[in-house]
Amino acid sequence: MIPSDFSPLMVEVQQWMLQMSEQQRMQKLMEWSEEQPHLFGFLVNLADDFPSREHQALSLLPLVVQESFRRMGMSVDTVAPDLLQKCIEEQVENAEKKEQTEEESARMLHELQRIWEFFSDLEAGQMDDREDVALILRILLSAFERSVPEQLQ
Asked: Model's pTM, two decimal places?
């Protein structure tokens, strides 16, 4: 069930994800991996750090972000390796300093965390102690936001 406090956009996107079969999701993921090979490689490299179900759920979240951006009328260029590295370094530094993200990004981060819980079959509330997942989501969001062409921002 989709939480009632989700933004209308995230409700639409989660419904879109739920309407797809597992095979369709994997096909979308493979298409996305060709569009964003560096982000995909970043996520693949995390496989040993998470149980299988959690990693699979984490791997689906870029599809949610990409579809959200698409529905807002924003395309995303391919994330270059140097941009991804910069996003990783900045987000790790922000996490160490416990800096807050902007309100809009914080809301999307919260909604993505809830979607991750849903797809990884976790009980609600378990995200509170999962700084690892929150960091990865902040890196993904930062990379997506910075890859929107300037004329669309």
From this structure: 0.82
